[in-house]
Design brief:
Layout lengths: L1 E2 L1 H17 L6 E5 L2 H17 L5 E4 L30 E9 L3 H11 L6 E10 L10 E6 L6 E5 L8 E5 L7
């Protein structure tokens, strides 16, 4: 399966609309490095266009919080974390591109909690796919995809929306 830039643009616009409709008050975006941080910046821009409020965008790199850091990663890479000194009392929308097993989200939540105790944290993902290994579900999602466990779901998303793509490749995902 391959989705076009316009499909992804529609899903992102829908997510921004859902956040505006939810009337969450002031909040910050925390994007998980690579797909989540880019998606968070796009959402912030769309929300500002609709409401005048531009949610601040931060990002985290969960590499050191992964439960497979020493068992499954041949060459871990680090993208850096940028969060306020403390997130105590902050309302957070945690953003990622694809939700699969839930382990990345668990790691992200653990890292955020090292910066304090948020008032609340909600999960937003562009693609919600099946295959959870942990009891984690999104509060907001753009598209649900049902596919085999061995399937690789890859999202390429840009801040400006040019050349976005969703690629679903059967039979190549290997968790080891």
């Amino acid at each position: 399966m391959f989705s076009t830039s316009s499909d992804i643009e529609n899903w992102v616009a829908s997510l921004a609309g859902k956040l505006v409709e939810a009337k969450l008050g002031e909040f910050i975006f925390v994007g998980i490095v690579r797909g989540g941080d880019v998606l968070a910046r796009r959402l912030s821009s769309l929300i500002e266009q609709q409401t005048g409020y531009s949610p601040p965008v931060y990002h985290i790199d969960i590499t050191l919080y992964r439960d497979d850091l020493y068992t499954g990663l041949e060459h871990p890479t680090f993208g850096g974390t940028h969060l306020p000194i403390s997130v105590d009392g902050t309302r957070i929308i945690l953003v990622d591109d694809v939700l699969f097993t839930g382990r990345t989200i668990r790691a992200a939540m653990q890292e955020i909690m090292d910066y304090g105790r948020p008032a609340w944290m909600k999960l937003l993902v562009l693609i919600d796919r099946n295959g959870r290994e942990l009891p984690i579900q999104p509060d907001f999602y753009g598209k649900q995809v049902h596919c085999a466990q061995s399937t690789k779901v890859r999202v390429e998303i840009s801040v400006d929306g040019h050349q976005d793509s969703l690629v679903i490749q059967e039979g190549i995902y290997d968790k080891s």
